């Protein structure tokens, strides 16, 4: 279940990370600058936030397994779309926004599956590992540069990502595993008030923004100071 949750989040965020990793080809092809790329990234995560807020409450109704299948199918089709039908900035933006909406569905879905099927004593560890989904995605996008993008272009990288997303479908169990329902902890055992939760949310947001900027601009930033696309050595 943990591997499935990590892979679900990973493939859902691949569009924006692959866009960043391949921007040294995508930008010149469509006449986009680093400023445009910043706006595209911001639009992706803003859309994902709104999508998560709107669809998060509906996941319990349709079930996490069905939500995962919807997520994986949509991710595969959208990644395939990037590889085949993106020939203008408009199409690129539309597919990126749709991908963001799908990503907004993935986190609540993964969280629900883990919450229901994780033993109470392992919840903190499991949810901590689950957040490896986005670093895993940036790792895959970075590896795609020397492995695929340099020699074959950015479109085959999206095509390979679509295949990876489709493979995750087979990790979704057909029968629901045994659920573990942890009792709700008393407020005194947590020691957190409403203000503490707001502070925690603010700190989390700042950390997320830093990680997002690092992941999206890493390849472009490295190349701007002289690193080669393949070897990672200075030219």
Report on the architecture of this protein.
The structure is a single chain. With 235 residues, the protein is mostly helical. It has one domain: Growth Hormone, Chain: A. Helix content is 78%, strand content 0%. The protein is built from ten helices and no strands. Helix 1 runs parallel beside helix 4 and helix 7 crosses helix 8. The radius of gyration is 19 Å and the shape is globular. It starts with a helix and ends in an 11-residue tail after the last helix.
Descriptive terms for the model:
235 residues, mainly alpha, Growth Hormone, Chain: A, 10 helices, globular
Beta-strand content: under 5%
Major β-sheet profile: none
**What value does the average pLDDT take?**
82
Note the quaternary state here: single chain
Give the % helix.
Answer: over 70%
Shape verdict: globular
Number of helices: 10
Q: H/E element string?
A: HHHHHHHHHH
* Low-confidence segments: none
The CATH architecture name reads Up-down Bundle
Our count of domains comes out at 1
Could you tell me the CATH topology label.
Growth Hormone, Chain: A
Tell me the CATH superfamily. MFS general substrate transporter like domains
Give a nutshell description of this structure:
This protein is mostly helical and 235 residues long. The protein has one domain (2-177): Growth Hormone, Chain: A. The protein is built from ten helices and no strands.
